[in-house]
Amino acid sequence: MSATFTFPPLDARLDASHADIRDAVRDLCSHYPDEYWRKVDEARAFPDDFVGALTAAGWLAAMIPEEYGGSGLGLAEASVVLEEVNRCGGNSGAVHGQMYNMGTLLRHGSEAQKRALLPKIAAGELRLQSMGVTEPTTGTDTSRLKTTAVKQGDRYVVNGQKVWISRVRHSDYMILLARTTPREQCAKKTDGMSIFLVDLREAVGKGLTVRPIPNMVNHETNELFFDNLEIPAENLIGEEGRGFRYILDGLNAERTLIAAECIGDGYWFIDRATAYARDRVVFDRPIGQNQGVQFPLAEAYMEIEAANLMRWRACAQFDAGLPCGPAANMAKHLAAKASWEAANACLQTHGGFGFACEYDVERKFRETRLYQVAPISTNLILSYVAEHLLELPRSF
Ligand SMILES: Cc1cc2nc3c(=O)[nH]c(=O)nc-3n(C[C@H](O)[C@H](O)[C@H](O)COP(=O)(O)OP(=O)(O)OC[C@H]3O[C@@H](n4cnc5c(N)ncnc54)[C@H](O)[C@@H]3O)c2cc1C
């Protein structure tokens, strides 16, 4: 018996089980069309209206359990929200911090911290959009970070510097990673670091200086300078010295969510490129009739579909409470690579018009390029896979 397989339209090919979420987020995003994002980008502004609407609709509280006022959804559903924002031409970079930072508080915070913050975050009254890890002199080598938090009575006193810390100017709280025990005194180099809730409304100007970093992708990101910043001791999250481990849990969620954003970008590039390739006529035929134009798009599309499978695996493992480091890292890597390949193919398909701001391709091209570097660079994922999955000798 022979069966004929016909692909449904691109939209219907997306996971139907999340159709309600997709429809609702798309509906919201339809009020923030290309022109909105283009203007925000040109003005190097923050998409306040969009973030306000997403918050008011409850989407940023997706992963907050119902007992704290959220919707109690999983990482899979949260990832669909961010995927759709990017697929509709927007940029989830303005909001994604809230999804995974909240998880760190949920898993490791005290009941008092959760009761104080989570219902207000769920209601949109407070924002927990920032996480301060990276430092200018130590970069990816997190265990060598130099920012210290020293306990003095009922406070910790913080000194040091961070770089590339995002959304600080649009957040009320930040999760900060700092050293509480010198590295030389720790059994393991990743011991002796702790995480804290920093109330940015209290801290800025009183020990914390924020210096914006203008950048290629209009990402609200900053240098932070800590000069005897005092944090109440009760703002320590979990146990002192275990902060690196706590942060890692959140990073798996972050990587999976970023993978979903890249998948959204990837579909956006393929949609735009194929539409243009069908319409643009050169040498008396649509450019999409040329295999030289078709093949890079077909290749990129396959890469996106394949990366998407790994994204769903990471979501399923995370939501089942299983270890998901390998899947989360691989999903982020594959999806970032696929969206970049799609971006390149889309730009090339548009020829000169790909460079014109009004087509939005160059904006999305810049935006999706970020994910090869942040939140973790491609080389670091490759070395993680080599060392932890292939059991090759550690390279650094
Ligand atoms: C727009 C933006 C937003 C960001 N937001 C945040 C944020 O909110 N919070 C936060 O904490 N950080 C944030 N970051 C920082 C980001 O996570 C880091 O930039 C990223 O992890 C890379 O670190 P680095 O820039 O210090 O690069 P480095 O560590 O200096 O590395 C530079 C290059 O060398 C490579 N490299 C380094 N060591 C090795 C090695 N052993 N083997 C092979 N290659 C190696 C890296 O892969 C990279 O390509 C952001 C960055 C950007 C650009």
Average pLDDT, all residues: 95
Uncertain spans: 1-14
CATH architecture of the largest domain: Up-down Bundle
Largest sheet report: 4 strands, mixed
Neighbour order of strands in the largest sheet: 1-4-5-8
Overall shape: globular
Q: What is the terminal separation in angstroms?
A: 56 Å
- The CATH class of the largest domain, by name, is Mainly Alpha
CATH domain fold name of the largest domain:
Butyryl-CoA Dehydrogenase, subunit A, domain 3
Cofactors, ions and other ligands in the entry: flavin-adenine dinucleotide
Would you give an account of this structure?
GO terms for molecular function: acyl-CoA dehydrogenase activity; flavin adenine dinucleotide binding. Pfam families: Acyl-CoA_dh_1, Acyl-CoA_dh_M, Acyl-CoA_dh_N. Keywords: FAD, Flavoprotein, Oxidoreductase. With about 400 residues, this protein is an alpha+beta fold. The chain has 13 helices and ten strands. It has three domains: about 10-120, Orthogonal Bundle (Butyryl-Coa Dehydrogenase, subunit A, domain 1); about 130-240, Beta Barrel (Butyryl-CoA Dehydrogenase, subunit A, domain 2), CATH 2.40.110; about 245-390, Butyryl-CoA Dehydrogenase, subunit A, domain 3, CATH 1.20.140. The protein has helices at about 10-15, 20-30, 35-40, 50-55, 75-85, 95-110, 110-120, 200-205, 245-280, 290-320, 325-350, 360-370, 380-390; strands at about 130, 150, 155-165, 175-180, 195-200, 210, 220-230, 235, 280, 285. The strands form three sheets. Strands 1-4-5-8 form a four-stranded mixed sheet. Strands 2-3-7-6 form a four-stranded antiparallel sheet, with no helix packed on it. It has a two-stranded antiparallel ribbon with strand order 9-10. A hairpin with a 2-residue loop joins strand 9 and strand 10. Helix 2 packs parallel to helix 5 (about 75-85) and helix 9 packs antiparallel against helix 10. It is globular, with a radius of gyration of 22 Å. Bound molecules: flavin-adenine dinucleotide. Flavin-adenine dinucleotide (FAD) binds next to strand 1, strand 3 and helix 13.
